[in-house]
Amino acid sequence: MTELIGRTRARGIETLSLDATDTRNALSRALVAGLTDALKQCGKDPGVRAIVLTHTGNTFCAGADLRDPPPAKALTGLLERIVKLRKPVVARVAGHVRAGGLGLLGACDIAVASDAATFAFTEVRIGVAPAVISLPLLPRVAPRALARYCLTGETFGATEAARIGLITQAAGDLDLDEALAPALDGLRRASPSALARTKELLTATVLEAFVEDAGEMNRLSASLFAQPDAREGMTAFLERRDPPWVL
């Protein structure tokens, strides 16, 4: 599992890189387990001030791996670990993000994306719903915009993602690392204990959603993936054709 997660460190910032380019960094059982374990290790390491979550290849995360999807509970646990981690997690996005990958962005404390990034809630197009990832996203993303993009599956860019609160900043004309530099410098200048306490305050509402709704969302996700529409939608996706409900 560890080979799916690249790890480097520079001045207290641990960079975790999703490195399953053959599957466009889709959330497989192994990738979810590997990232969960890496985050757990970072949380215990006093030498880590903050974590940057990034990727290799042109896709940050393609959503769930339809050939080897993780259990809903495992994905929920990963998102909750990011939110509860007593160290800031910063998403560095230089590629496409789909479906479950958007849940990773919602769980992160800061997210910066380049103009090469695109975003889409594609669940409805394969016959399911964004159940588990709604836990970190509903408290943070503009409700009207979230309704539109979850219902339609439309693709949108980094500027729109920043406008609706899905990410913190679109890098625009800046190099992505240049855009990230002020935030990382600020984290390096902050007291670790103060960072932990501040993050706790900022994520309280998001954690409430996990406490109150995680069980229901796990059950809903499992139920939806077992439905005929989901089986047909996933088959159509893997066969690169439209499902029968497309008009």
UniProtKB/TrEMBL annotation:
What superkingdom heads the lineage?
Bacteria
List, alphabetically, the SUPFAM superfamilies matched.
ClpP/crotonase (SSF52096)
- MF annotations from Gene Ontology: catalytic activity
Spell out the CDD domains in the cross-references. crotonase-like
One of this protein's Pfam families, by short name?
A: ECH_1
* Family under the similarity heading: Belongs to the enoyl-CoA hydratase/isomerase family.
What name has this protein been given in UniProt?
Enoyl-CoA hydratase
List the source organism: Streptomyces aurantiogriseus
